[in-house]
Amino acid sequence: MRQVDKNADHKEIKKAFRKLSRIHHPDKGGDQEKFKNISAAYEILSDPEKRKKYDKYGLDGVTDESPGHTHDDLFSMFFGGGGRGGARSGPRKGPSVNHPLKASLEDLYNGRTVKLAVTRKVIVGDAKDCDTCGGRGIRTELRQIGPGMMQQLQSKCPSCAGQGYKAETRNQRKVLEVLVEKGMKHGDKITFREMGDEIPNTEPGDINFVIQEKDHEIFKRKGADLLITKTLSLNQALTGFEWTLTHLDGRILHIKSRPGEIIQPETTSGQPFVKFIKDEGMPSRGNPFVKGNLYVLFRVEFPKNGELSANAIEVLKTTLPAPQMPLDMMDDEEHVEEVHLDVADVKSFGKGGAASSNREYDSDEEEGGGGPVQCQQS
User: Fold this and answer.
1) Which residues are within 8 A (CB) of 89 and not within 5 positions of it... i.e. 6 or more apart?
2) Secondary structure element (H or E) that encloses residue 34, with its range
3) How far apart are CA 269 and CA 35, in angstroms?
């Protein structure tokens, strides 16, 4: 019989299905397995959405609609061979396996090669199609639900657990050299192609090592930039500072202020006071010679009460600008009252006064104390 063209419309597919059914129907002496294949293929090709997937992606596009070991036998009756050669003409690919790989910030700055052992399953000998399902992975059952009406039921093959084949496997241990590139970041993958478990008629999946960046006690990272926090005394903030910093590659950076430079507690807009050192951040992945910047967030620590002596206070008054604020005193000194400041919490702002006391009084009145008072006379 002449197979239909791969561009056949629904009418031609239906006509071919009827002819094949008359030939292969079990009631007419045909092969039951072939009839099941024809019915399963027609179910897909007669559905516009499923047919569209088949036209675009080939056999892989209809895997969910017609599960099994291989689908060539489903469509060979109509098209005289395998699939249409859609987006993927080769074998299907097995699932990938992801392994977390913890890496310090030093590893991601300098790069590192680690050896890791993985275990995967490899096939021993040749895989064989399951005798129960004929390699399709499904068991098909036809039920008559009415005169001339048949219902096709499909279930996973119990003999091969839906795989469609039976194969002996063994565990293979392999040591992989995993290269952590300079500039890699959290979530990046290091991929070893086709190193997953072997599955018959399927390309092995990939093994991915996923970078898990560990926190650093000094440096914070964002993209290619690094950030450190430096606390200065008021003396250092006003008169200058210098300190040494051990970088991620072991270099010692001697950091010092410029002459006359003053570090503010915060910027005029209320943001933290930050400066940076150009090109001392993280290297860029793929181009490690291009680096980010190293940011320094400053905090100024003021002296605590009692730490300044009377002599030190006098020196500060005579040295620092604007030692006193101008006073607007009234002529009548009897109306001038000297007060001092106490430590406060801004969250308490708006909660002062007798507001809470008044609420207590109101509560007492609501409980029955709001009526007029009567005096008993004897």
Assistant:
1) 58, 83
2) helix 32-45
3) 79
- In a shared domain, residues 107 and 158: yes
CA dist., res. 103 & res. 230, Å (int): 25
Note the pLDDT tens digit of each residue in 238-280. 999 999 999 999 999 999 999 999 999 888 888 899 999 999 9
Residue 145 falls inside a structural domain: yes
* Residue 219 CB contacts under 8 Å (≥ 6 apart), including other chains: 105, 226, 227, 228, 248
Furthest C-alpha separation in the chain: 126
Last residue within a domain, chosen from 170, 185, 213:
213
Per-residue burial over 88-107, b if 16 or more Cβ lie within 10 Å, else e, is eeeeebbebbeeebebebbb
As a 3-state breakdown, the chain gives helix, strand, coil percent values, each rounded to 5, of 25, 30, 45
Hey, what are 83's tokens?
A: 């699939």
> HSE of 59 in the Cβ direction (CA atoms, 13 Å)?
20
Task: Say which residue, 102 or 57, is predicted with more confidence.
Answer: 102
Cβ proximity of 74 and 168 under 8 Å: no
Block residue for tokens 């092995």: 204
Do 116 and 15 belong together in one domain? Answer: no
Q: What is the DSSP letter of 207?
A: E
User: pLDDT tens for residues 354-365?
Assistant: 755 555 555 555
Rounded Cα gap, residues 136 and 59, in angstroms: 13
Structure-token pair, residue 366: 């609501």
Helix axes 72-79, 10-24, angle to 10 degrees: 110
